[in-house]
Amino acid sequence: MAGMAAIALRRWMNSRSAYHWRRKGRSFSSFSCTVDSNKDGGREVLHFPVLIVGAGPVGLFLSILLTNLGVDCAVLEKRTVFSQHPQAHFINNRSMELFRKVDGLAEDIQKLQPAVDLWRKFIYCTSLSGSILGSVDHMQPQDFDKIVSPVSVAHFSQYKLVRLLLKRLENLGFHTCTPDMLQSLNQDMLWEKKILMGHECISLHPTDQGVMVGASFQKEGKMEERKFHCSILVASDGARSTVRNLVGINMKGEHDLQKLVSIHFMSKDLGQYLLQQRPGMLFFIFNPEAIGVLVAHDLNQGEFVLQVPYYPPQQKFEDFSSKVCKQIIFKLVGWEPVDVEVVDIKPWAMHAEVAEKFVSCNNRVILVGDAAHRFPPAGGFGMNTGIQDAHNLAWKISSLLNNIASPSIIQTYEVERRPIAISNTNLSVQNFKAAMSVPTALGLDPTMANSVHQVINSSIGSILPSSMQKAVLEGIFSIGRSQLSEFFLNEDNPIGSMRLARLRSIFHEGKSLQLQFPAEDLGFCYLEGALVADGGNRTLETEAASGHRSGPRDYIPSAKPGSRLPHMQVRALNASFSKDIFSTLDLIPGDKLEFLLIIAPVEKSYDLARSTLKVAEEFKVSLKVCIIWPEGSSDKQETGSGTKLDPWTNHIDVEEIKRSSSKSWWELCHMTSKGFILVRPDEHIAWRSDSDTLDNIVPEVERVLSLILGVEKSCV
Predict the structure, then answer these.
(1) In this predicted model, which residue has the larger pLDDT, 132 or 467?
(2) How far apart are CA 309 and CA 81, in angstroms?
(3) Which of 179, 285, 615, 669 reaches 20 to 30 Å from 165, CA-CA?
(4) Burial of 184 (0-12, 13-18, 19+ CB in 10 A)
(5) How would DSSP label each residue in 489-503?
(6) Distance CA 406, CA 709 (A)
(7) Could you tell me the CA-to-CA distances from 681 to 233, 625, 653, 712 in Å, in that order?
């Protein structure tokens, strides 16, 4: 009976007229899945507040964030099964910080990833069993001491990450469904929290209240179309985004930097050999017979991806059969492991492009991840930038649908994230060029290879038969690779000795391919958007975007608006927090739309906090106040804010935990204890100032929240 009552209740809730939020002539539906009044050939169309196209890591992560914030969503995925190709594998500090807030996700990644000592190095060699030309260790002691972040970077294949994300979604009530499984789902209540496999977005049309989406699927061997309606459509459908093309958004940047064949293969014999002899993450292999980059996804499991450049149309992807790929693997390994199994072979093109717009159709269609930006893989910025796109967007969608912010909050997503994407694109290109410095030092200038290819493709070369074009191209490349023979590349050969010396210099000076970029990973800063900028020198923020930089820079903590909140370990001084010692980043919950105000135990700051809590209540904004006390305060008898913030109770007193010779919290933030910091739900700083510089606190806080949320006080 209880089950029947629950079903009846859900049917009643889903049959209600959709609650609509209206401001400035626009409307957005509320959180719940409903049946829309729009018709599709006489059939009712299901309405979702948010529909996500693409079930890769970015789309799945966004689904988790939105669901945790109470926003109903569904996911369309054109594939019928999830890819088992490893693809992306490096998870940077910031992404791992975000994963800490998702049901133990970061902890699971750290437990399941290979041991750090097995992937910390990039190795340059003539074959996997041949001479080592050099190696670079990309992990330093400070990467593990948790001074700048509560978590370290990780090496974890994309398909394994997808499995963990799907598990979290299952825990939230999501179900992965094929078209056949959906035939019996006629009641709208059963469509909630679905990942709809085999559904390809083929059309979209703006409506007065959202977007009508057409998705094709196969039924009994025939293609059919199903319509959905949503308030917001999020495109996370990859580098060749259908949604991006349907709304006519162009990509801007460098196209086809290089074409490669990606060979996914397994070999436990090779994995065990490398475990014992030369463990690493990436192996750059140069010898007279072949050139390639091997990604060791998991040495214990013997899982690898080999990246091999190719030059169409003279070299065709179809030429890379499983047999041919095995021969290439053997040439690069230096011996023939008997258990090599080629799992998958894929072509791909390297681009460095950013969408001209991230938001379209009156803030209804939004691009995230590879749909919005395509990077060279150098530095691992692709998936990580997408994960951070989703994190920036989720709280803004929730604020809009929760009647807290205006539609303009969605525009701030583009204002904030597009400059970061441009900066990361430039940084990836620079890192890719740094990677090319190694073959250049060995006498294999990649620009020369591209020039040869262009000549053969030109009017002069194109008159030759295709077979002769291929023979000429591969003959020239073979001559170039002959410089890599041990006869030539050794210390006794004057030219070889000079090239090896140049190679050592590149590694010593840190001018080869880099793995970590702390300043950009943790220190990226939004210069405008849903924040109150306080001016200052923009040199550091724009340096990477302009392309003027000299290798990875250290992360410098900052409390400047737009920056990520600095990490410091603190200790709770009362029982209102679940852990005794935790990071300042943990003060912002992952499952609640809440702002954070950080102050010191100073009388004027308490006055400001009370006023801010009052104004936040009027703006329907949840706000928590954190009072950070100096180290040693817990030893004193009178510690804690007591009744100073009455009648509000949503506050926490914490004590800073300083490492030896480290700075205090306010010193870390380059502020005084008279300062205060307002932090957004995405852990980025929205506003900062000094409490003793504000004469009229209430009007100023009203102005600040109006700017951040895009609303007027009179509209609240």
Answers:
(1) 132
(2) 28
(3) 179
(4) exposed
(5) SSTTSHHHHHHHHHH
(6) 6
(7) 22, 13, 19, 20
Residue located via tokens 């924040």: 531
For 206, the enclosing helix (H) or strand (E) is strand 200-207
Q: Where do the DSSP E strands lie in 517-593? A: 569-572, 581-583
Burial group, residue 145, by CB count within 10 angstroms (0-12, 13-18, 19+) = exposed
pTM: 0.91
Give the distance, in angstroms, between the CA of residue 251 and the centroid of all CA atoms in the same chain: 19
Q: What are 288's two structure tokens?
A: 């007279």
Q: Is 620 helix (H, G, I), strand (E, B) or coil?
A: coil
Cα–Cα distance between 58 and 238 in angstroms, integer?
9
Q: 265 with 304: CB under 8 angstroms? A: yes
* Residue 433: CB atoms within 10 Å: 15
pLDDT in tens, 441-452: 999 888 777 777
Handedness of CA 568, 574, 577, 578 (dihedral sign): positive
Cβ pair 622, 592 in contact under 8 A = yes
Q: Kindly tell me the burial class for residue 663, based on how many C-beta atoms sit within 10 Å of its own C-beta (0-12, 13-18, 19 or more).
A: middle
- Of 165, 170, 144, nearest in space to 99 by CA: 165
CB 29 within 8 A of CB 49: yes
* Residue 207: other Cβ atoms inside 10 A: 15
Helices 603-618, 697-709: axis angle to 10 degrees equals 50
| Separation CA 418–CA 414 (nearest Å) | 5
Cα separation, 135 vs 116, whole angstroms: 16
Mean pLDDT of all residues belonging to the chain: 88
Distance of CA 93 to the CA centre of its chain: 11
The rounded distance, in Å, linking the Cα atoms of 620 and 550 is: 46
Instruction: For 4-27, write each residue's pLDDT tens digit.
Output: 333 332 333 333 323 233 333 335
Query: In angstroms, rounded to a whole number, what is the distance separating the alpha carbons of residues 50 and 478?
Result: 54
In angstroms, how far is the first alpha carbon of the chain from the final one? 43
Could you give the 3-state DSSP secondary structure of residue 307? strand
